[in-house]
Amino acid sequence: MLMIQSDTATPEPQPRGRLNPSQPRQRYNLVVIGGGPAGMACASAASSLGAHVALIERDSLGGNSLHAGSVPSKALIRAARCAAELRRSGEFGIRLRAPFDVDFPAVMQRVVQVQARIAALHSIESFLDKGVDIFIGEGQFADRSTVRINGHTLNFARAVIATGARPAPSGVPGIDDLRTYTYDTLFGLRELPSRLAVIGAGPLGCEMAQTFARLGSNVMVYEKHSHVLPREDRDAAKIAQQSLERDGVTFRLGCSEVRAEVISSGGSIFSQIADRRFSDPCDSVLVAAGRIANTGGLNLEAAGVVCDEQGIVVNRYLKTTNPRVFAAGDCCSQFKYTHAADALARVVIANALFYGMDRASTLLVPWCTFTDPQIAHVGIQESEAAQAHLNTMTIPFAESDRSIIDGSENGLFKLHYDIRGAIRGATMVSARACELMGELVLAITHNIRLSSLASDIHPYPTESEIIKHAGDLYRRSFVTPSMAKFLSKLLEWRR
Description:
By secondary structure, the protein is an alpha/beta fold. It is built from 16 helices and 24 strands.
């Protein structure tokens, strides 16, 4: 198997200049350990406010989001969507004269180019220009108020642990004997896997299963739950599964046992579902079994910082068991998303530098799954809505003019709200769900009620009109039969 060479796969070369300063400052307002989204946001915000900041990163800035997460995965998804659109072109009266080919090395080269362009926006040089001292290497605590790195001792008033997370092990016996990838290594591929097994039907598993199927791989997904995307609304997950199956993905759901073996033709995944046993050949395996916090090698005991199986232990203010040390991002949060890491960093800056009392527990964090159609969610789920005696409104995107125009009406908009029209949660499945969800986040955060959404004017034809439509339906719900009869009589009298 060919791999991308290091000189093209590294999106950010290490710049010359003030890296690893020969003489650190006598004392820093903030020492940040980890140069991913949370760490970069902490360092950038603190330095812009006049703080003396040191940022420690063992490799390259950007973290998983840039190097092995959101950026490369979405760039790859974009290529796969292009291939899917070409296959559907006949539906729109466009006839291809010959079958098209997927140049997988070229696809992956574009992924690298996208990473490089985005890395340039968050380069080490940009942080140096802000006055941040950058230290490249492994940092660890020496005591409750100092960190050591490369022979230097950094004294701090406050510190932030933002070390991110790494792929969780699959727990599948024999998996290491096969050609196995995680999101840390998947985007180094240069050869399209012919038969890809995916362990886990969560967001990453479903996104990559659909993507590789669209690019030409035969894909089989294994999941212990009886349905895909266990965290999502069941109706939304069902639509996603049907869409993946249309793209050629096969599922083994409800697996009570999964194991791997090497056979003469390559590898094989053995699974058991109820009383049935299956054996499926594969060339490569993607382990998409979730993520676990990076807490090793920091010498947390010396700092008096406690961690557990979930990661760094923090309170609602993101303070660890050492009041001088805070944590942000994937290493301490259940919401392992880039946008959540940025939000948590803002909480840390307010609380660590300015004795604020901002609470991470009050943050409203949406999440998105970039399958096609996309799934976006914020707030409470339908099961929680029923327990709280809330109302639920469901609108199919088959009622959206724009969705019909685009041939993408396979979706839904599910809204949970109270008797006053205050929105408590929403799930959206559509071609542009992840873009549309921002309007619902705004409405919930700022207590904009459904009746107010009915007054907003949306451009036509757009999928966002479905939000206005929900507001209209809510207003109409107040027109009771007796009120409708009265209004009819009133209008009859006025004729």
